[in-house]
Design a protein that fits this description.
The chain is an alpha/beta fold and 318 residues long. Helix content is 47%, strand content 10%. Helix 2 crosses helix 6.
C-alpha cells in the first residue's frame, strides 16, 4: 500500500513539474516575442532608452564579436524569428543579415542606413583623414566595406534619428503606451544634448593633438568634435607585423608628429608597443562597440563619455 501511494505521489510530482516547465516556456516565448532585437550593442544602447518600461531590448552579437565577420548560431536565428522588431545598420556592416531577414516581415525590420534622413548624413570611409590610410597589402587581409562609413552609432546626430525611428515604430506596436514612449524619447534627446555639450568642453583642449587609429571607425564622432585623426593603419591583429610594416608605421608617426596611436581590445599591447618603440608616441585604447558598458536607459551617453575619456587619457598629458 505504501509503495502504491509513494508511486502515485512521484507521478503527481512529475506532472506538476512538467506543467510548470510548460508554463515557464510559454511565458519566456511570450516575452521573447515582445522583444526588440538590435544587431550591435551601441544600437541597443539607443534603442533601450526608447523601449525602457515598454518592452525588452536584446542584442544579437555577443561582446567581443565583430559585426564584419560574425557567424550566426541557431539560437540567433530563433531570436530573429521571435523578435517583434529588428533594428540593424546595413549590409555593409552586417553582411549576414539580408539573407536571414528574407523570410521576416518588412514591417518588423528597421535597416538604419536605408533611412532617408540618415542617408543624407552618411560619410565616405576616407573623407575624414588629412593624410589618408596606410595600407600594407603584403601583411594583412583588407576589410572590404562599402563606400560609406557604417559606424553610424558614433554620430550623436544620427543617434537622434535612430531614436525617433524606433519611437515611431514602438507607437505602432504599443499605441496604449504612447505617453511613456514619448517621454522616453524626450528624456533621451535632452540627455544627449547635455552629453554633447559636456564632450565638446572636455575635448576642446586636444583638438590639435594628432593621432592614428587601427580601425577607421570614428569619423562621425571626430567630425562633430573637431578631432585631428591623421589616418589609420590597416594590419591584421592576429598577425605579428613584419619589419617593413613596423618601419612604415614609425615613419608615418614621426612625419606627422602624432601624439597617440589608438589600438582596440583585439590588439595585444605587445604588438602596438613594437610599432611605437623608439618614438615619443603614446598608446591609447578605444572601444567603438561599448563592450564594457551594460545595457541601460542612459547607456548611450555613458558610451560616448567613455569614448571621450579614452581619448583624453592618451591625448591630454599636459
Amino acid at each position: 500500500m505504501k509503495k502504491y501511494i509513494s508511486l502515485n505521489f512521484k507521478q503527481l510530482w512529475r506532472i506538476l513539474i512538467l506543467l510548470s516547465l510548460v508554463f515557464i516556456t510559454q511565458s519566456i516565448t511570450i516575452r521573447a516575442n515582445a522583444n526588440v532585437l538590435t544587431s550591435v550593442k551601441p544600437i541597443g544602447f539607443i534603442t533601450q532608452a526608447i523601449t525602457y518600461g515598454v518592452t525588452e531590448t536584446d542584442i544579437l552579437l555577443p561582446d567581443g564579436a565583430s559585426p564584419h565577420t560574425y557567424s550566426l548560431k541557431p539560437s540567433d536565428l530563433v531570436k530573429i524569428k521571435q523578435a517583434q522588431l529588428i533594428v540593424w545598420v546595413g549590409e555593409d556592416l552586417e553582411a549576414f543579415m539580408p539573407t536571414v531577414l528574407k523570410g521576416i516581415d518588412k514591417d518588423k525590420q528597421i535597416e538604419l542606413m536605408a533611412i532617408p534622413d540618415i542617408k543624407k548624413l552618411l560619410r565616405t570611409g576616407t573623407q575624414n583623414h588629412e593624410y589618408g590610410k596606410l595600407d600594407l597589402d603584403d601583411e594583412h587581409d583588407h576589410d572590404h566595406h562599402g563606400s560609406y562609413d557604417e559606424h553610424i552609432w558614433l554620430s550623436p546626430q544620427i543617434a537622434k534619428i535612430i531614436a525617433k525611428t524606433v519611437h515611431d515604430k514602438l507607437i505602432d506596436l504599443y499605441p496604449d503606451k504612447r505617453d511613456l514612449i514619448d517621454e522616453n524619447l524626450n528624456e533621451f534627446t535632452i540627455k544627449l544634448a547635455e552629453t554633447e555639450q559636456n564632450i565638446a568642453k572636455k575635448l576642446i583642449n586636444v583638438q590639435n593633438s594628432g593621432y592614428f587609429v587601427f580601425h577607421d571607425a570614428y569619423g562621425y564622432f571626430e567630425s562633430q568634435f573637431g578631432l585631428k585623426n591623421l589616418g589609420s593603419f590597416t594590419i591584421n591583429p592576429a598577425v605579428q607585423p613584419g619589419v617593413q610594416t613596423v618601419y612604415a608605421i614609425k615613419q608615418e608617426l614621426k612625419e606627422h608628429q602624432a601624439v597617440c596611436v589608438f589600438r582596440e581590445p583585439q590588439f595585444s599591447p605587445a604588438v602596438i608597443q613594437k610599432l611605437v618603440n623608439g618614438t615619443d608616441v603614446r598608446i591609447g585604447e578605444l572601444n567603438p562597440l561599448g563592450t564594457d558598458i551594460a545595457l541601460s536607459k542612459n547607456a548611450y551617453s555613458q558610451f560616448l563619455l567613455r569614448l571621450t575619456q579614452q581619448l583624453l587619457d592618451c591625448l591630454d598629458k599636459n
